[in-house]
Design goal:
The chain is α/β, with parallel strands linked by helices. It has helices at about 20-30, 55-75, 95-105, 130-135, 165-185, 200-205, 215-235, 250-260, 275-280, 285-290; strands at about 5-10, 35-40, 85-90, 110-115, 115-120, 125, 140-145, 155-160, 190-195, 240-245, 260-270, 295-300. Helices cover about 45% and strands about 20% of the residues. The strands form two sheets. It has a ten-stranded mixed β-sheet with strand order 3-2-1-4-7-12-11-8-9-10, with helices on both faces. A two-stranded antiparallel ribbon has the order 5-6. The radius of gyration is 22 Å and the shape is elongated. The two termini are about 30 Å apart.
Length: about 300
């Protein structure tokens, strides 16, 4: 696996540092280095403008030192048996996602691991604003993990888009499958490919009387099955683990992931920004919001983060 530098995002509100546990698990298999990264900010600091610069700096440094010691204690107690060398970095910043991306760009990390929050009543995953910002803007893969270990032989899903003859989509498909297979290799797991295709457009059926919706649907499905077979063959994935379903990706992918009891879904995010993101929405985000398992989000080749150093 080509993850050699892992940034594990620490959450002071969580009893267990899921991101660190997973980073260690990956590191033990790959030899990757790990940095435990914590962003802190005390908004009461905004109320101290009457103090001198030195007093404000001392106050800020005291908080940073306290959290650094807290994190050092966690590593010394909960993760003492990991036998991994873990660096610690605590930064003062009021936008956690920006500080994470700054660190990734500056120090050339190749994977971000972050724990998700669990909705206690609904037993589902809650994605925080920081999670969404990282999914949209981080220039490297983002692994969002729940509080559980992956069983050996668990199922891994690669959500691909094989019906479009666009180089960017095909390149992203290759990256998604590549990463899914790498995790499957680590965990002795199977990879399933999932692809959705759109149903017959109702307006065409109404406007063109001679239009044959059954023929259209069968042709569309066969086109996606054939394209999926080519992708699967290239990566030596058995036909029985290829799933082509009619419907929207945000319905098909979570449904199949649940049906397969998937431990991880690997998908691509295009990282749209601004008005296009607000109006069109990002399909990947709709999918992710309905998933109740771990997620590895991959960016396309050439993606440039909108967050600048």
């Amino acid at each position: 696996m080509n993850f050699q530098k892992i940034l594990a995002v620490i959450d002071t509100e969580q009893d267990q540092q899921k991101s660190l546990a997973w980073a260690i698990e990956i590191s033990q298999m790959t030899g990757a280095s790990i940095t435990a990264f914590l962003t802190i900010y005390d908004f009461s600091y905004e109320m101290t403008t009457m103090l001198s610069m030195d007093e404000r700096e001392n106050m800020r440094q005291a908080v940073v030192d306290d959290r650094t010691e807290w994190l050092r204690d966690i590593l010394a107690t909960e993760f003492a048996q990991s036998h991994c060398t873990i660096d610690i970095k605590v930064v003062w910043h009021n936008r956690p996602y920006e500080s994470i991306i700054y660190e990734v760009i500056e120090k050339n990390y190749d994977l971000i691991v972050k724990g998700t929050k669990d909705h206690g009543i609904l037993k589902s995953v809650i994605f925080t604003p920081t999670d969404w910002h990282l999914l949209r803007k981080a220039p490297v893969p983002v692994l969002l993990v729940k509080e559980h270990a992956w069983p050996e032989g668990g199922q891994i899903v690669a959500a691909v888009n094989v019906g479009v003859a666009v180089d960017e989509h095909q390149s992203l498909n290759e990256k998604i499958v590549h990463h899914a297979l790498q995790f499957a290799n680590l965990l002795n797991s199977d990879v399933h490919l999932i692809n959705s295709y759109p149903g017959t457009p109702v307006n065409i059926v109404i406007e063109i009387p001679e239009f044959d919706p059954t023929h259209y649907s069968e042709t569309m499905k066969q086109h996606h099955i054939d394209a999926m077979a080519v992708l699967a063959k290239r990566h030596h994935i058995d036909e029985s683990r290829c799933h082509v379903d009619e419907g929207l990706p945000e319905d098909v992918i979570p449904h199949r992931a649940t049906q397969l009891d998937a431990e991880l879904v690997v998908l691509g995010t295009v990282g749209r920004q601004g008005i296009s993101a607000a109006l069109i929405g990002n399909t990947a985000e709709h999918v992710i919001d309905k998933l109740d398992c771990d997620v590895l989000a991959i960016k396309p080749e050439g993606f440039v983060s909108p967050v600048k150093l």
